[in-house]
Write a structure and sequence with these properties.
Elements: H1 5-19, E1 22-31, E2 34-41, E3 48-54, E4 61-64, H2 77-86, E5 90-95, E6 102-110, E7 116-124, E8 131-135, E9 141-144, H3 180-188, H4 194-201, H5 207-217, H6 230-248, E10 255-259, E11 262-267, E12 278-281, H7 285-332, H8 337-350, E13 360-364, E14 371-375, H9 382-426, H10 430-442, E15 462-465, E16 471-474, H11 478-488, E17 494-498, E18 506-508, H12 517-529, E19 538-545, E20 566-571, E21 578-579
Antiparallel strand pairs: 1-2, 2-3, 3-4, 5-6, 6-7, 7-8, 8-9, 10-11, 10-12, 13-14, 15-16, 15-21, 16-18, 17-18, 17-19, 19-20
Helix pairs in contact: 3-6, 4-5, 5-6, 7-9, 7-10, 8-9
Length: 582
């Protein structure tokens, strides 16, 4: 989701609610493009707020946080300047011009002579053009966290002594000054997809918010504006009024939307066009932003940490698939072994009928009564031909027996590697990868570095509670699968797994009680969701009492066998289930 003008309006409201008349107690600059302002509310209150302002080009942000980052030993010049002027200053106003991606903090403070002065700290959250600018009461730039010269930007210089202004780089309209009639005229001004016409013409509207507007109006977001009817334009105007009324009244209800367990979008209020996704509501936008980007960073870090593991497992999988195909082809070539054996036996029986120098003989196959023509080498006797066929039969039989064993081993290796990749896919935390790496070391895919000890395991299985109050556990990797199934589960507990598909073991603790059908379905959904087929709508699941699940001696981690089981088709949607965070 874009950090758009409406999201910033929500943040600006939070800043007004918390920081008006608050004093700036501390100013820190932990990163080159980032400030943290610690503010204390007056009136004898001990309330304290920590506001993070980031002008990072890739991720500009403004939100309240509980974290206090470590600052450099020597404060940067911009931080020292702010401390000199506005530390102990009082925030008297927080504004956002229109729906621009800008928040302006107006601060009163005493100068060296003890006179009351007013200055402003402006944060511009505009992608690569983001900046934090300190200006005086005449809007002259005192300094900024990034200096922008005329060589860098022909639109506006951001340097000490220059006048501060908001550059008019687009011809977008201010939504607060745009009525229904003007809004309709903006949509019909040029032929664009409807949602694009909205965000191309209005300040503060992102593509996502524009799609929401179209969804509220019941108008296809990709409908060309030139093809829109008068009724559709009227509905668009109604939806526009609805959204702007929420903004004017500050009726915000921040929410994050999840897809396959990962945060996908967020918004200042619920988005109807994302109703099919799981939604998590928040009390304020700061809490949402911290949670959203923290989860995003965790997922990104997990993906980065898992790259090497995934590459090793994927390479080994591809190699084993090629090996399996070659072995299967070689096995197919042994299909003639029985024919050669029959040739040999028939030649021993009918060899006396072969004429000297003959290159074939047609005889009756006494196994099925059919006529069979046997090719011969006319330079040798019938019995020598029979010996050759028996030799071929013996060689192919030995090859068949060896390949049958090898093919089974290769298939198990492929199944194991696919389960490892599935474990990497469902890993949420860095500690989840430790057991996967250890499994790959023990399986010979990775060499343990000399002197390196096995890392401490802190990862635990996923834990859910069914709608009927039963506890359900999901293994995150093959070690956990074995642990859950053969050490944690009791004989009367129920065991679930995707049918003939790599995936997690799911254990449903029955506690000696009769388990309702709904709980069976929910446990099956967990097995479906945490399987290789987790992106499909439905997956076939096998389930059985744990006492009937066996582990063959010497088998790979996570590998089990069972012979009598039940099956059901389960949905992969687990959004209704309550996860226990441990």
């Amino acid at each position: 989701m874009a950090f758009d003008g409406i999201t910033i309006a929500c943040i600006a409201k939070e800043c007004r609610d918390r920081l008006l008349n608050a004093r700036i107690y501390k100013i820190a600059q932990p990163e080159k493009d980032e400030l943290i302002l610690t503010c204390k509310v007056g009136g004898g209150s001990k309330e304290q707020y920590r506001l993070l302002l980031s002008a990072d080009a890739s991720l500009p942000l403004c939100y309240f946080t509980q974290e206090n980052k470590k600052s450099p030993m020597t404060a940067p010049n911009f931080c020292m300047l702010l401390r000199k002027h506005i530390q102990n200053g009082r925030i008297v106003e927080v504004t956002q011009p229109g729906l621009e991606r800008i928040i302006r903090f107006e601060i009163e403070h005493l100068d060296e002579m003890g006179d009351l002065c007013k200055k402003s700290l402006v944060i511009e959250l505009m992608g690569k053009h983001s900046n934090i600018i300190f200006v005086d009461d005449n809007d002259r730039i005192i300094d900024s966290i990034k200096h922008i010269s005329g060589a860098v930007s022909s639109v506006r210089e951001v340097l000490p002594g220059r006048e501060y202004f908001i550059p008019e780089t687009t011809e977008k309209s201010d939504p607060f000054l745009t009525d229904r009639e003007k809004f309709r005229n903006l949509l019909t001004g040029r032929s664009l997809p409807m949602y694009k016409a909205v965000y191309s013409n209005l300040t503060g509207f992102s593509p996502q918010m524009s799609q929401e507007l179209c969804n509220i109006a019941g108008v296809d977001a990709d409908l060309p504006t030139s093809a829109a009817s008068g009724e559709e334009l009227e509905r668009m105007a109604d939806a526009y009024d609805t959204i702007m009324e929420r903004v004017r009244k500050a009726e915000y209800a921040p929410a994050v939307y999840y897809e396959n367990g990962a945060p996908k979008e967020y918004a200042a209020f619920p988005m109807t066009y994302l109703d099919s996704l799981e939604r998590r509501d928040y009390q304020d936008m700061s809490e949402l932003l911290y949670s959203y980007y923290h989860e995003k960073n965790v997922i990104t870090r997990i993906r980065q940490r898992s790259v090497d593991l995934r590459r090793i497992a994927q390479t080994a999988l591809e190699r084993n698939v090629k090996k399996y195909d070659l072995q299967a082809k070689q096995l197919k070539d042994t299909e003639k072994r029985e024919t050669y054996r029959i040739y040999g036996e028939l030649l021993q029986t009918y060899g006396y009928n072969v004429e000297p120098g003959a290159n074939k003989i047609t005889v009756t196959n006494y196994y099925d009564g059919s006529e069979l023509t046997i090719p011969l080498d006319g330079t040798i006797t019938p019995l020598e031909n029979a010996s050759r066929y028996f030799a071929r039969y013996g060689k192919l039989k030995r090859t068949y027996e060896a390949l049958t064993t090898l093919l089974k081993e290769t298939a198990e290796e492929i199944e194991h590697l696919e389960s490892v990749l599935n474990s990497i896919d469902i890993a949420r935390k860095e500690e989840d990868l430790i057991q996967i790496k250890e499994e790959m070391i023990q399986s010979g895919y990775i060499k343990r570095k000399g002197g390196t000890k096995q890392e401490k395991v802190t990862s635990r299985p996923f834990h859910y509670i069914s709608s009927d109050g039963f506890h359900m556990y999901v293994g995150k990797n093959n070690f956990q699968n074995d642990e859950l199934t053969f050490k944690f589960a009791q004989g009367g507990d129920w065991w679930f797994h995707a049918k003939k598909i790599p995936g997690s073991h799911v254990v449903l603790k029955s506690g000696g009680k009769e388990v309702p059908d709904r709980t069976f379905e929910e446990a099956a959904s967990l097995a479906a969701h945490y399987s290789k087929a987790g992106r499909q709508d439905k997956v076939e699941i096998d389930y059985i009492e744990k006492k009937h699940v066996k582990k063959p001696a010497g088998s790979k981690p996570g590998f089990v066998v069972y012979y009598t089981n039940y099956s059901m088709l389960a949905t992969t949607d687990i959004s209704r289930l309550k996860e226990v965070v441990e």
